[in-house]
Amino acid sequence: MNGLSKLTLPCVGILLLAGCGTQLEQAQGLTPQGTAFDKNLYQGYLEVSSSEYGEGDYRDSDAFAERAMRAGTGQAVEPEEIDLRALPADKAGELTTARRRLTAALNGPAAAGKPAEAAKAQVMFDCWMQEQEENFQPADIAACRGGFIDAIAELENVPAKTVAEAVTEPAVPGPYAVFFEFDKAELTPEAKAVLAEVVRNAGTAKFSRIVSTGYTDRSGSSAYNSKLAKRRVDAVVSYLLGSGVEKSKVVSASYGEDRAPVQTPDGRREQQNRRVQIEFAR
């Protein structure tokens, strides 16, 4: 695997897109701003968008073009959440482990010194997610997965074999998401059912901690939403502790409408963002 070359269309093919009215055309006209990481992220997503357009997958082309534009305007773009894709059951664990390794690397000191490698790792992970959900192009799945592994290896300065072995280890359970009604922090029966499964797995899985992270949609003020997200996380933590999970293994954070899993305009209600994300960490 050599960078993103597998995904790059010939320039003439890209030029022919002019006038098609797609998100890709708009993304191509952008002069990227932000950090070196943002600019590399923009270029990587743009190339994936071009590749998907060339295959006639206009929906995913638009999705990657939108991520490119967000990165190219200096907005924070997180790696795609596991539960936003309908992944094959036998692949979700591997991708969950890969995402945890990716987020740890992106938040570590190496990422600042290697922005190209960090951006490539995120782009190839999102590419892998998309291809694995489709699950009918083995060569493309392998290319994106291999690109991710190579990029993480470069970022961490370890052999690619080490990353590949770690990614294919049996995954810890999850991740899980519990959802809340609009402007509410009370656990619904559906949320309690999800948390009951978390508690059951906490009794058998090997893990160091359970991390609960709260979000809201963008309806209402940012200050109010920060408090609402905290109340939602507190409700989840209270359930876990009340069900016997060790306090020392439960950690939490809340971001309100910041870092929302699903990007929306300010003021819009979005059920997918009214959540607490729960993850087991090794």
What labels would you give this structure?
282 residues; alpha+beta; 60s Ribosomal Protein L30, Chain: A; 3 domains; 4-stranded mixed β-sheet; globular
Topology (elements, then pairings):
Elements (H helix, E strand, L loop, with lengths): L10 H5 L7 H6 L7 H19 L3 H15 L16 H18 L2 H5 L1 H20 L3 H19 L3 H8 L8 E4 L9 H14 L6 E7 L6 H21 L7 E7 L18 E7 L1
Parallel strand pairs: 2-3
Antiparallel strand pairs: 1-4, 2-4
Please explain how this structure is put together.
- The chain has about 280 residues and is an alpha+beta fold.
- The chain has helices at about 10-15, 25-30, 35-55, 60-70, 90-105, 110-115, 115-135, 140-155, 160-165, 190-200, 220-240; strands at about 175-180, 210-215, 250-255, 275-280.
- Strands 1-4-2-3 form a four-stranded mixed sheet.
- Helix 11 (about 220-240) links the parallel strand 2 (about 210-215) and strand 3 (about 250-255).
- The longest helix has 21 residues, at about 220-240.
- The protein starts with 10 loop residues before the first helix and ends with a strand.
- Residues about 5-20 have low confidence and may be disordered.
How many domains in all? 3
Question: What top-tier CATH class of the largest domain fits best?
Answer: Alpha Beta
Shape: globular
Number of strands: 4
Radius of gyration based on Cα positions: 19 Å
**CA distance, first residue to last residue:** 29 Å
Name the CATH superfamily classification of the largest domain. Answer: OmpA-like domain
Main sheet properties: 4 strands, mixed
The ordered string of helix (H) and strand (E) elements is: HHHHHHHHHEHEHEE
Helical run tally: 11
Under the CATH scheme, the architecture of the largest domain is 2-Layer Sandwich
- According to CATH, the fold-level topology of the largest domain is 60s Ribosomal Protein L30, Chain: A
Average pLDDT reading: 89
Q: In percent terms, what proportion of residues is strand? A: 5-15%
Task: Identify low-pLDDT runs.
Answer: 5-19
Strand order in the sheet with the most strands: 1-4-2-3
- Percent of residues in helices comes to 40-55%
